[in-house]
Design a protein that fits this description.
Blueprint lengths: L4 H4 L12 E8 L4 H11 L4 E11 L2 E10 L3 H13 L3 E7 L1
Antiparallel strand pairs: 1-3, 1-4, 2-3
Length: about 100
């Protein structure tokens, strides 16, 4: 999924203080968009910014990709990525902005 130009132009490859990770998440029907966002914000207490989404709502499943900017420190960002991995949700850090 392509990043918005404004984000792409200031994207870095490594974490540093004041930068937040841009994460691409792929929904494959095993978790709904609403449950994913609720887990990130309510359970993990991580503010986020939804940058872009292309999601299909089919029955009880959600399919597609979204780009999130997790607005947290490195420790909490790592917790969110661990959560996604535990739930077998495909994800990739695209960079830091």
């Amino acid at each position: 999924m392509a990043l918005p130009e404004e984000i792409y132009n200031r994207l870095g490859n490594t974490y540093s203080e004041g930068l937040f990770p841009i994460i691409e998440v792929e929904l494959n029907g095993n978790i709904s968009f609403e449950r994913l966002i609720d887990a990130i914000y309510s359970q993990l207490k991580i503010p986020y910014r939804l940058l872009k989404a292309d999601i299909e709502f089919l029955g009880n499943g959600n399919f597609g990709k979204l780009l999130l900017e997790l607005r947290a420190d490195k420790e909490n960002t790592d917790k969110a990525i661990q959560y996604l991995n535990r739930k077998n949700i495909k994800n990739a850090v695209k960079g830091y902005a």
